[in-house]
Amino acid sequence: MRNFQSITVHNERQFRALTGVSQKEFDRLLPEFTRSLASAQQQRYRQHQTQRRRRPGGGRKGTLSVPELKLFFLLFYLKNYPTFDVLGSLFNISPSKAEEQVMKLIPILKQVEQHLHVLPHRHFKPVQNDDQPTENINQPTENINQPTENINKIMIDATERPCCRPQHGRRQKNYYSGKKHAHTLKNTVVATVHGGIDAIGPTAPGRRHDYALLKEELNPEQPGLSSVEVYVDLGYQGIEKDYPKLHKIHIPHKKPRKSEANPNRTLTPKQKKENRAISRVRIAVEHLIGDLKNFQILTSQFRNHIANLGDQVILVVAGLCNLRNNYEVQ
Question: Whole-model pTM above 0.85?
Answer without folding.
Answer: yes
